[in-house]
Amino acid sequence: MEILLVLVVVVLVLVVVASVVLVGRRRGIEELEPGAGEAPAVGTVTLEPRELQGEETGPEDLLEPEIQVIEPVGPVLGATVEVVGPPLTEEEEAANIAAAEAAEAEWEDSHGGLEELVRPSFRERLAKARGAVSGYVGSILSRSTVDAETWDELEEALLLADVGAGPTQELLDAVRSTVRERGVTTSTELIDAVKDEMKQRLAGPVDLARADSAPTIWLFVGVNGVGKTTTIGKVGRRLADEGASVVMAAGDTFRAAAAEQLGTWADRCGAQLVRGEEGGDPSAVIFDAVASASARGADVVLADTAGRLHTKSNLMDELAKVRRVADKGDGTVTEVLLVLDATTGQNGLQQARQFTESTEVTGVVLTKLDGSAKGGIVFAIRAELGIPVKLVGLGEGAADLVDFDADEFVDALFDRD
After folding, report:
1. Residue 399 near residue 371, CB atoms below 8 Å
2. C-alpha span between 166 and 170 (Å, rounded)
3. Could you count the other beta carbons within 10 Å of the beta carbon of residue 352?
4. Residue 380 host element (H or E)
5. Per residue in 226-271, pLDDT tens?
6. Which of 73, 243, 378, 389 is deepest in the core (most CB within 10 A)?
7. Among candidates 267, 334, 277, which has minimal Cα distance to 303?
8. What is the pLDDT of residues 112-162, one digit of tens each?
């Protein structure tokens, strides 16, 4: 009987000690219990979900981050900070997984993984845009003198390239003045004058600004389908190759599989991903991402944002709120990059007008320029909105997102070879 009592006491002591150790190991991090049969992934920090922010919520309501970052254990390519929300249905989970796997498979099939980045040339990739104007340029160069028909053909070429009616007229007025001042008489000199004027108007710094102290925050805005998430992934890859540490914020909580797609890119370039529950508050996700970056000493936060809500007004209000909240944390917003699809031409210009009304856009990322005959939209954006085009997409690969070069662009647009 005495031996039995001793054994019971020993067991109770062991239980108490084990409980104390377990509580100590969990201290300092909020955690939700995984579902039945599930285990949290190695290197993943699981957090209590943040309450959704109401329409009237402002940055003053987000005083402290709701995460505590710990060093990941496991993958070398960074960790995931995941805010766990309501469980997905089997259909939603399957759709998200399928979308992420499809994005990964497309990348691997097209680019063979982490290949060495080789920058493409504008001349090589602007075949469609060049083809739209080459016929007119050839006709103009075949003329021995500059006459009324020459000016008409030049105007048609610029309009066909989607430069826009207003910018085209301003450009031609400036070129006419140059022609008179220089005494231009040949078609070759006229084309050179047009190219010089376009280069001058498109010239300007295209570097993406960094803050004096980390973390730097770059917000990416634009409607769904223009390539925001892919652009963020490519920018992250570029930063990683430069030795910068990156945090990606999955702030588009309203599009199915957006976080999974961004997570694929984060894994690919070694970035940390901060995400929230689907349908949650984007500004809360971005606030936590900035807090995480600050705690980890990361250099840059790349923040995805929503591209569609119930109405345009709701979307613009949400983006304005995201900007206010991002500015309130430890980081500094130095770039608000509007992502546009070059193939939409003047529709893209209209999108740019709408976004610049509610957000302080600092630059444009023009995707799919290689697949568009409307390359003149670059000039229209600069001329009508005064916003520089800083990056352009000349293909699907990570290396195909390049700094915009005004000289290369104009030369490629008028090249006849």
Report:
1. no
2. 6
3. 21
4. helix 377-385
5. 889 999 999 999 999 999 999 999 998 888 788 888 999 999 889 9
6. 378
7. 334
8. 444 555 677 788 788 877 777 888 888 888 888 899 999 999 999 898 888
